[in-house]
Amino acid sequence: MRELDMLLGVLYGDCLGAPYEFSSGPLTGPLQVGPSVFGHPAGHGTDDTETTIAVAQGLGPVKKVV
Question: Across all residues in the chain, what is the average pLDDT?
Answer without folding.
Answer: 79
